[in-house]
Design brief:
Shape: globular
CATH topology of the largest domain: Rossmann fold
Helix content: 25-40%
Largest sheet: 6 strands, parallel
CATH architecture of the largest domain: 3-Layer(aba) Sandwich
Strand order of the largest sheet: 3-2-1-4-5-6
CATH class of the largest domain: Alpha Beta
Number of helices: 15
Distance between the termini: 22 Å
Structural class: alpha/beta
Number of strands: 22
Radius of gyration: 23 Å
Length: 458
């Protein structure tokens, strides 16, 4: 697939790195030559320097042959114009634009005409991260909560704690503990290394356990792996930027929310926009300020600034001063590795959260949802099975008959409104939404091929 990425910032660079590893034909456009040179030094991609919305630059970048345009510059209007040009001049099949302004996001129909679609998909990394954190707040025991099949199924990551009923027991005991609940452990990571789960696999304290279950059952499964935490009540947000403001707006009706913002003008603006949130002017890593605002009574501290160092320092300080749990946004992958064993409970990469939304449009076969996990090393996806036993490699076959790559688990099948947690003898039918977990993303091409229908089907 020929993919043109407009913008070599954090989102564009992360997507380029992900796709370059998968043998896609990738070209990146940006006005910053230094960013482009860094990408070229590390990956087998083509780069073009220039303004992403200029027709001559797009032509030089090969827009006429692109299968997909991904416009992710920091300017909404540049992204919109680039997609418009590619639509009018080249009839590009898929056009995705990063949009930050709510004025555009709240009126997506303006990008559609009666004859065609100017932009096929709007993405807002800030909104994706906000939704992601909101899910974690609604599930205070989880490290990750990912929805599939319109929220019918969830993939949940939890850290197994001493005292959890199933800790120290083999997975075969899970059914005895919760006989009325169907679930499937998709993967276990121990000390950063994956373990393919089997019936005799014993869960140990500190294991990171990924399980798949119907959304209504996730709480029951969590309770087998750890003592359930009390719901959050008091939440402090360090940083009142796009993400901080969106999150405060979502939370303020149900939680006691405080926002710390260093910029006086922005703090004043937030105080006017938010109706039930306390806005504090100050440094997010100011120990005296945190103490004055009773940090030891805060249930969740979220470090959400654009500065990794400020996020890490403020989150670690908040934890030391008594905050029950802390979350930090981290942009640099190297920093995520460094703080994994620190006092920070959850390190969240905005790029990895965003990439999943994009990959669903790039994956071959009918892939409707993708989540990038473990900093891009693993992947969870939802694929739709089509065809019949002659034209499909999966339809009409039992799970144990499928030629699944090593480390790939099918955790659930959604058939209409029915959620089926799979076993070895589950038979896949045409139209099923199949939820898969890949410990090693390098096998994604093999999985895509499994769900592609032979030409004889058409």
């Amino acid at each position: 697939m020929k993919i043109l990425i407009l913008g070599a910032g954090q989102v564009g660079s992360s997507v380029a790195a992900t796709l370059a590893r998968e043998d896609d034909d990738v070209t990146v456009v940006d006005t910053n030559n230094e960013l482009l040179e860094k990408l070229q030094d590390h990956y087998d991609i083509r780069t073009v320097i220039g303004q992403a919305s200029h027709p001559d630059v797009l032509a030089k970048a090969g827009a006429q042959d692109a299968d997909l345009i991904l416009a992710v510059t920091n300017n909404d209007e540049t992204n919109i114009i680039a997609c418009q040009i590619c639509h009018n001049l080249y009839n590009t099949p898929t056009k995705i634009a990063r949009i930050r302004s709510n004025a555009y996001l709240s009126n997506p129909e303006i990008f559609n005409t009666k004859e065609s679609t100017i932009i096929d998909m709007l993405i807002s990394p800030e909104q994706i991260v906000t939704d992601y954190i909101t899910q974690l707040i609604n599930h205070p025991n989880a490290l990750q909560v990912l929805d599939f099949s319109e929220g019918k199924v969830q993939l949940v990551a939890v850290k197994a704690f001493h005292g959890g009923p199933l800790v120290g027991s083999p997975l075969s005991e899970l059914r005895k503990h919760i006989p009325k609940t169907e679930t499937r452990v998709a993967a276990i990571f121990r000390n950063g290394y994956p373990i393919i789960p089997r019936a005799d696999t014993v869960i140990e304290a500190e294991d990171e356990v990924f399980f798949i279950a119907a959304t209504k059952d996730t709480l029951s499964v969590m309770s087998e792996l750890r003592r359930l935490d009390k719901p959050y009540k008091r939440i402090m947000l360090a940083g009142g930027g796009q993400i901080g403001a969106r999150l405060a707006k979502v939370l303020e009706s149900d939680y006691h929310v405080k926002v710390i913002e260093a910029n006086p003008k922005r703090a004043h603006q937030l105080s006017e926009e938010l109706s039930n949130t306390i806005v504090l002017l100050g440094d997010v890593a100011n120990e005296d300020l945190l103490k004055e605002e009773d940090i030891d009574k805060i249930d969740l501290f979220c470090a959400l600034t654009n500065d990794d160092e400020a996020n890490i320092l403020s989150a670690m300080l908040a934890k030391r001063l008594g905050a029950r749990k802390v979350l930090s946004l981290i942009n640099r992958a190297a920093y995520v590795d460094l703080i994994e064993s620190s006092s920070i409970d959850i390190a969240l990469s905005p790029q990895q959260a965003t990439i999943g939304s994009l990959l669903a449009h790039i994956r071959r076969g009918d892939i409707v949802a993708v989540h990038s996990l473990r900093r891009g090393a693993a992947e969870a996806l939802e694929a739709v099975a089509h065809g019949d036993k002659k034209s499909s490699r999966v339809v009409g076959r039992r799970i144990d008959e499928l030629n699944l790559p090593s480390g790939t688990t099918i955790g659930a099948v959604v058939r209409g409104d029915q959620v089926i947690v799979t076993h070895h003898d589950t038979v896949i039918e045409s139209g099923d939404h199949v939820i898969l977990f890949l410990i090693h993303k390098r096998h994604i091409t093999e999985v895509e091929r499994l769900f592609q229908v032979d030409f004889s089907f058409f």
